[in-house]
Amino acid sequence: MAAGSWQTARGRLGAQKARRYASCSMNRSLSELPERCGVLVVGAGPAGSAAANVLAKAGLDVVLVDQRSFPREKVCGDGLIPDAHAALDKLGVLEEVMARAQPAGHVACIGPRGGRIDVPGRLAVLPRRELDDIVCRAAVRAGARMHAPVQFDEPLLDAVGRVCGAKLSHGKEHREIRADWIVLASGAVPQALKAAGVCERQTPAGVAMRAYVKNDAMVGRITELEVVWHRKLRPGYGWIFPCPDGVFNIGVGVVDSHAKGLDGHHAMDVNLKRVFERFCECYAPAHELMAGGVMQGGLKGAPLRFTLAGARFSRDGLLVTGEAAGSTYSFTGEGIGKALETGMLAAHALLRGRQQQWDDAAVRAHYEAGLMALKPRFDLYERANRVNAHPWLIDLVIWRARKSARLLKRMSGVLNETSNPGQLFSVKGFTRLFTE
Predict the structure, then answer these.
(1) Which residues are CB-contacts of 409 (< 8 A; sequence separation ≥ 6)?
(2) Measuring CA to CA, which residue among 174, 158, 154 is closest to residue 166?
(3) Which of 94, 95, 176, 205 could be 306's S-S partner, Cβ–Cβ 3.0 to 4.6 Å?
(4) DSSP track, 313-374
(5) For the stretch 400-421, what's the b/e string if a residue is b when 16 or more beta carbons lie within 10 angstroms of its beta carbon?
(6) Could you tell me the residue ranges of all domains in the chain?
(7) What band does 12 get if pLDDT is binned at 50, 70 and 90?
(8) CA dist., res. 332 & res. 227, Å (int)
(9) Does residue 361 have a pLDDT over 80?
(10) pLDDT digits (tens, 9 = 90+) for 333-343
């Protein structure tokens, strides 16, 4: 859609916003929780709300709970790459999202020597406070009942050990709810996974920190999503993404932040605040943004779970989805699109299971097969992840891409998920850099 059309959509949706929001009953209290439901979805972020949306539209009785009332902050880069656009479109909320988002046409990849290549794609930026609220409200409009703030304490088990509900709480108040199935979309923090008996790795695979900075002088100067690699940031990267209203999301991510050395102990001690300071030292636009801007809130950090690893995907009566299942790409740190996708996969597995009398084995097999179909792509992004540890590689790719339209097309294909990201940074890929 053209930029003018997005502005028209923004005006039209603005007139509808009050009516729609008034019709959505959000943040019901724990005391209003029903005694049972068809599906209990734990976590109202992209994965949980996507699952709740699909299930409620199909007529299932869905209860959605989250430990925080909405709208709420979420530490994230806020970038929406093509897979997120496709998933939001399937959910019927893309127009609403884009009416508020800051659209962009490229990801600017910037190497240690200052080289830059703009990789085209369908892109946008919208703070998670707004994005998640839109997606959650869509689930409520579809018929899901949202209760927050509600804490998931542990699952209820029947006589044979099948999950049949959950114990929930808020402060000193405790309630139980029975459910045919639970979808656990609790994010990267492992407490809910541990309580549900599906946690295989408690430590995160990476960590990130971001800030929002208001700087009107930078509007029009930083118009694309900028991702920066530098030896001072390894094994990670920095970013600046333009948000609406003259605000910028600036942050850093470190992958393999809790990797263990040969002695079995953690190989690195990551000080994210220091990495953020180094980003502002080594990248002039970051320094200028911070020096001339006003921070909106403070620096905030969060754990990351990558590569569909770190948790069991299911047990009888329960499916694990979103970042709880490791739905974030290790190379780029992008997770919104795949969280939405995995949430919808969980919903479709349950809908198929409903046709088979809720057979546990059939539901679990269908869901895990869907995740495994995505796994090769996550593995390829993990292979490409070597760039974060060896940033000089991105210098080489940028240098060649500026001379090769075919290579730039391949890079765009990685962004749009039509090309293999691992091939860019394989031995064969580097050989092709000098032949294309």
Answers:
(1) none
(2) 154
(3) 205
(4) SEETTEEE-GGGGT-B-TTT---HHHHHHHHHHHHHHHHHHHTTTT-HHHHHHHHHHHHHHH
(5) bbeebeebbebbbbbbbeebbb
(6) 3-101+125-200+306-384, 206-303, 390-433
(7) very low
(8) 9
(9) yes
(10) 889 999 999 99
pLDDT band at 245 (very low <50, low <70, confident <90, very high): very high
**Mean pLDDT across the stretch 38-58?**
98
Q: Which pLDDT score, from 0 to 100, does residue 376 have?
A: 87
At residue 10, the 3 state secondary structure works out as helix
Q: Do 363 and 352 contact (CB within 8 A), yes or no?
A: yes
**206-303 CATH:** 3.30.70.2450
Cα 373–Cα 131–Cα 238 angle in degrees, nearest 5: 75
Euclidean distance between CA atoms 46 and 228, whole angstroms: 26
Q: Using the structure block, give the residue that is written with the tokens 């919808």.
A: 344
173-184 and 314-315 strand pairing: unpaired
Q: How many residues does the chain have?
A: 436
Instruction: Kindly state the average pLDDT of the residues 21-48.
Output: 87
The dihedral through the CA atoms of 176, 177, 182, 184 has a sign that is negative
Domain 3-101+125-200+306-384 CATH class label: alpha beta
